[in-house]
């Protein structure tokens, strides 16, 4: 039963007698509504907050509050953004990533732009110009000095983060590119497109090494993961090109529009499984050498085991809003949805950590660096959260 809180609760509870609403949504039962009230601010700057009947405030500090609803036996920790960057883009931000060193961010927006910025303060560093139409996805290579992007123009581009030059353009897809994945250190990359194909590319020669899958349905999300030794990935029908680097012992996961989740050996191109979900799959990620997650348009998060994919390990459903992004994080994961919710599930915690701030606007993507989490949203804001604030 998910708990919800007013998106700007941290500001609302900073003043005397300030109030914020709370609600608990048990599946199949009426929603329970409540409120939080500030009784005053302590000397340490932390508000004294009480909850209305049916809810309990367990703990509060400047940026987080831990609330429970004993009747439904649920509790959540809500974390407010440490800082918000509003000047990077003017419209909805569709994708973002943070470099491996944590110094730079890259993001793409419905305003047609793709930008590189300082991760600490959101200050603009570079504008990456060259795609025609919208940029759907952007990510840093492991080096942190190079960016990979894919757009509605069916082009995949590689950019220098240092001088904003486009060093390589890959052409071959017949439809917009919706997601990408980088293999190992990045000599090869994978793209998934609206044309229904997933392709493997050689970055050094800017050539297509092959169509890994042709599924006749839009590929919304792709993920590459190292397979556990117990998984038989199959053998390639022909000798792989010597330009394929790091593809052996890797699995490729495809989140498809036709409600199917497809997994295959990246080098062998052999199928591992095809799982049918409740709705279109939007995103997917690997949690380990055999565990994976995939999210659907109707709000289901499937956890599957590659060794026995017929029955999900679990299905998490917190709301009917589309699952927009999934990211492996510590011993759990972070998920974001189309209703503005973004939450962290960790094995050792009996509560969920909710990243608040977005008010019903979809949170499209999440990126992390050490104890910092960045989100991008339809409201045009990048939010940065500090887990140390918990």
TrEMBL record:
Gene Ontology annotations for the cellular component aspect, listed alphabetically: cytosol; proteasome complex
Question: Could you confirm whether the keyword Repeat appears in this record?
Answer: yes
Pfam family, any one: WD40
Does the record bear Repeat in its keywords?
yes
WD repeat ranges are 86-127, 128-169, 170-202
- Report the InterPro entries cross-referenced here: WD40/YVTN_repeat-like_dom_sf, WD40_PAC1, WD40_repeat_dom_sf, WD40_rpt, WD_repeat_multifunction
Write down the SUPFAM superfamilies for this protein, in alphabetical order. Answer: WD40 repeat-like
Which SMART domains is this protein grouped with? WD40
Q: What keywords are assigned to this protein?
A: Proteasome, Repeat, WD repeat
How does this protein assemble? Interacts with PSMC1, PSMC2, PSMC3, PSMC4, PSMC5 and PSMC6. Interacts with SUPT6H.
As for family, the record states: Belongs to the WD repeat PAAF1/RPN14 family.
Q: Which PANTHER family does this entry report, sorted A to Z?
A: 26S PROTEASOME REGULATORY SUBUNIT RPN14 (PTHR19857:SF19), MITOCHONDRIAL DIVISION PROTEIN 1-RELATED (PTHR19857)
The protein's name is: Proteasomal ATPase-associated factor 1
